[in-house]
């Protein structure tokens, strides 16, 4: 007998004569307390994210590259990892070229194995899009793909995330259901609610444990 | 001031370690401060009692519902994960699980493993198993890293190094890593970050636990704050997740209330920094992520707990640690006193199924039964009720068939006879009256020692006259009428 057969056999024999309990999910419990007027969603998300050291900026959907350059310059960062093959990456690249920024734009265009050392030690910041945000918990949702791979939002010390104001949902349940996540998830989905942190020593909160030390969310006012 | 009577007969188990812990002022202070803070944080995270209770009820129903069709869900999970490209393995014992993990690492000729936080890997003592086979298995959660560096075990399931303060960590980093001493927590964390970053990059294999496994989509969900879980499951070319068989839930939406209950109960956070949903290895067109993802499903006594409808409720546990944060015993003796992977109230009801009640006979008794653990449990496990049940299992006749592994370890023939005598005395009025007469008249002969009771209390001495006597005299003096 295999371990699988033994385990399933034991479980089944313990359930002989019983009937499975009905599905007792109660949607109202995970949605009703977490509803916000559309104009309050940004404020809610912002206050929660700022409470955990996220820098949140609201900006126009066309002038955000300027803000990105400003934020990087303020920190004296020398390069930024972005995805020049997709819309926001192209917009950023166009702005940086037009304004002759000295910050180097890097692209994640090869398998991680080919440039792991550089990614881990020489990339200052990254910029990714998001699938949307969640007002209830102050969260941005990342849906990594070929253009914006998983490590892009994790390894560089500063992560800038673009969030469209129109894509902020009230709560996780609404977002999952309205976008029908269950029909097909990518290999990795991430809910990110601040920069990396730990309170493992004396419960003193310290940021920048293993992931980004700083998370900057740009809320694009596209409503 | 009365003199405290020392405990004279220490058993090497829980009681002995508890005595030691109770005399360690630093340890008691570290725990007191931490647990007070965690209790406040949890309370603040649930400002609306109705919402909290509704959610706990839902959490309980979801877990109980999942357990009521556990084998079907496990098969569905396996099917979906396999479709997604994840390899699923099954292990009945920790030895089998370790062999599986070792086999996967060996197939890749791996020598360095980074591990995210995983209580199941603690059950397996995976670090030691792999180290004996020449494989370095490094803990990457800051707290776990600190305790590993000091050759210790975690003392809390959420905050493994909670028993240490900054000064102690500073000394440890100085002694083991040659770092300059500092009590600045930020600097200490940055030392950990620098040291571990290189390890994440070089590791051949990343190991993680699983908070919830979703059968509907074939997804492994992990919650964490540090990013070490994401690093361990993304940067190395192989990811091995290890989990108990009870972690499966039917649908993706089920994790919405469960994650909320978990993060709010554990640390008072509305959500953790990262919630990581892993549904497969790197696809051919993707540029990072592990090439292989494996899931090891471990039994290790869980089917035993599952077989008993009452004890099955232990499998509801979502490992938030709230029960230990609120436990007056845990707060005073700390996690190491329990001597097992899972400390605190939940440990007291889980461990007997893994190790056998005979290995941890003191655990069910190390409780004041104040009920706090049951009151805060986000999935409403009736921990005090299960502790009482285990106390009963503990004293069952060992020659009779046992319902819990290792039951009957505290069975005492003398005690059984004493209770029989007590029963006889209290069910025969004439005998009872004679006993009462003798006990009051010959009170000077009462024994000076009464087992564990007199370790910390004076011996009970019968009164000069029984209550019956006094009441009868009172009635006589007042003409048989109450005054």
Overall geometry of chain A comes to: globular
CATH class of chain A: Alpha Beta
CA-based shape of chain B:
elongated
CATH fold node name of chain A: Rossmann fold
CATH superfamily of chain A: NagB/RpiA/CoA transferase-like
Strand content of chain B: 5-15%
Helix content of chain B: 40-55%
Strand order, main sheet of chain B: write it out.
1-10-7-4-2-3
Distance between the termini of chain B: 40 Å
Computed CA radius of gyration of chain A, to the nearest angstrom: 21 Å
SSE string of chain A: HHHEHEHEHEEEEEHEEEE
Oligomer: heterodimer
The helicity of chain A comes to: 25-40%
CATH architecture of chain A: 3-Layer(aba) Sandwich
Largest interface: A-B, 80 and 98 residues
What order do the strands of the largest sheet of chain A run in, or round the barrel if closed?
A: 1-12-7-4-2-3
Q: How would you portray this structure in words?
A:
The complex is a heterodimer of chains A (223) and B (483). Chain A has helices at 3-14, 27-31, 38-51, 64-74, 87-98, 116-122, 172-178, and strands spanning 54-60, 79-82, 104-107, 125-128, 132-134, 139-142, 158-164, 168-169, 188-192, 197-198, 206-207, 214-221. Chain A is globular. The mean pLDDT of chain A is 96. Chain A is built from 7 helices and 12 strands. Chain A has one domain (34-221): Rossmann fold (3-Layer(aba) Sandwich), CATH 3.40.50.10420. Chain A is an alpha/beta fold. In chain A, strand 10 (197-198) and strand 11 form a beta hairpin. With 483 residues, chain B is an alpha/beta fold. Among the domains of chain B are: 165-199, no CATH class; 413-478, no CATH class. Chain B contains 22 helices and 10 strands. Chain B has helices spanning 14-22, 25-45, 49-68, 70-83, 94-107, 119-124, 126-132, 142-149, 166-177, 185-202, 228-234, 255-267, 302-306, 322-325, 328-333, 344-355, 372-376, 383-394, 413-427, 429-441, 453-456, 467-477, and strands at residues 86-91, 112-115, 136-139, 205-208, 212-214, 219-224, 238-244, 248-249, 274-278, 292-298. In chain B, strand 5 and strand 6 form a beta hairpin. The radius of gyration of chain B is 27 Å and the shape is elongated. Residues 1-11 of chain B have low confidence and may be disordered. Classes of the chains: A alpha/beta (223), B alpha/beta (483). At the A-B interface, helix 1, helix 6, helix 7, strand 9 and strand 10 of A face helix 2, helix 3, helix 4, helix 8 and helix 10 of B. Chain A: This is LUD domain-containing protein.
């Amino acid at each position: 007998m295999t371990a699988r057969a033994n385990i399933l056999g034991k479980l089944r024999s313990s359930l002989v004569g019983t009937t499975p309990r009905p599905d007792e999910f109660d949607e109202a419990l995970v949605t009703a307390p977490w509803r916000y007027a559309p104009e309050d969603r940004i404020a809610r998300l912002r206050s929660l994210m700022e409470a955990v050291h996220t820098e949140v900026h609201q900006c126009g959907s066309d002038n955000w590259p300027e803000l990105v350059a400003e934020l990087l310059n303020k920190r004296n960062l020398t390069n930024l990892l972005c995805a020049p093959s997709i819309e926001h990456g192209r917009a950023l690249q166009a702005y940086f070229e037009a304004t002759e920024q000295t910050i180097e734009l890097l692209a994640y265009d090869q398998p991680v194995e080919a440039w792991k050392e550089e990614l881990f030690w020489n990339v200052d910041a990254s910029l990714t899009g998001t699938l949307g945000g969640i007002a209830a918990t102050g969260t941005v949702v990342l849906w990594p793909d070929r253009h914006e791979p998983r490590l892009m939002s994790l390894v560089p010390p500063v992560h800038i995330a673009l969030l469209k104001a129109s894509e902020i949902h009230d709560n996780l349940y609404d977002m999952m259901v309205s976008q029908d996540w269950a029909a097909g998830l990518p290999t990795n989905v991430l809910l990110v609610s601040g920069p990396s942190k730990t309170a493992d020593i004396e419960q003193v909160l310290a940021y920048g444990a293993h992931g980004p030390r700083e998370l900057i969310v740009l809320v694009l006012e596209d409503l | 001031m009365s003199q405290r009577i020392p405990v004279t007969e220490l058993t090497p188990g829980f009681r002995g370690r508890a005595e030691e812990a109770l005399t360690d002022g630093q340890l008691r202070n570290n725990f007191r401060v931490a647990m007070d803070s965690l209790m406040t944080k949890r309370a603040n995270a649930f400002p609306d009692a109705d919402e909290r209770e509704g959610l706990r009820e839902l959490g309980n129903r979801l877990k109980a519902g999942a357990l009521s069709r556990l084998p079907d869900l496990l098969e569905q999970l396996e099917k979906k994960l396999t479709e997604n490209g994840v390899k699923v393995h099954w292990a009945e014992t920790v030895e089998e699980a370790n062999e599986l993990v070792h086999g996967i690492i060996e197939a890749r000729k791996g020598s360095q493993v980074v591990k995210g936080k995983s209580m199941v890997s603690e059950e397996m003592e995976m670090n030691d198993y792999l180290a004996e086979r020449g494989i370095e298995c490094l803990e990457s959660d800051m707290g776990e890293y600190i305790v590993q560096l000091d050759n210790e075990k975690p003392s809390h399931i959420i905050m493994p190094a909670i028993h240490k303060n900054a000064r102690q960590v500073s000394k440890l980093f100085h002694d083991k890593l040659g770092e300059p001493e500092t009590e600045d927590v930020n600097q200490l964390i940055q030392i950990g970050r620098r040291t571990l970053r290189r390890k994440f990059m070089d590791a051949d294999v990343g190991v993680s636990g699983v908070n919830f496994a979703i059968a509907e989509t074939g997804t492994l969900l992990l919650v964490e704050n540090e990013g070490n879980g994401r690093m361990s499951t993304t940067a190395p070319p192989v990811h091995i997740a290890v989990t108990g068989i009870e972690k499966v839930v039917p649908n993706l939406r089920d994790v919405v209330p469960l994650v909320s209950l978990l993060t709010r109960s554990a640390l008072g956070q509305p959500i953790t920094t990262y919630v990581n949903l892993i549904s497969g290895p790197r696809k051919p067109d993707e540029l990072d992520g592990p090439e292989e993802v494996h899931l090891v499903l471990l039994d290790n006594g869980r089917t035993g707990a599952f077989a008993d409808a009452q004890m099955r409720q232990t499998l509801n546990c979502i490992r938030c640690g709230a029960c230990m944060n609120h436990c007056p015993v845990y707060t005073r003796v700390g996690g190491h006193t329990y001597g097992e992977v899972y400390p605190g109230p939940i440990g007291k009801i889980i461990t007997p199924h893994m190790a056998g009640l005979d290995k941890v006979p003191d655990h069910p008794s190390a409780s004041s039964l104040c009920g706090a653990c049951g009151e805060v449990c986000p999935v409403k496990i009736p921990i005090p009720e299960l502790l009482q049940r285990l106390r009963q299992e503990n004293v069952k006749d060992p020659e009779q068939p046992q319902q819990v592994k290792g039951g009957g370890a505290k069975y005492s023939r003398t005690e059984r006879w004493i209770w029989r005598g007590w029963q006889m005395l209290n069910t025969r009025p004439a005998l009872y009256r004679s006993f009462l007469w003798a006990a009051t008249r010959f009170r000077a002969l009462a024994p000076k020692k009464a087992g564990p009771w007199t370790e910390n209390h004076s011996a009970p001495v019968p009164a000069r006259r029984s209550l019956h006597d006094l009441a009868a005299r009172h009635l006589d003096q007042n003409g048989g009428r109450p005054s």
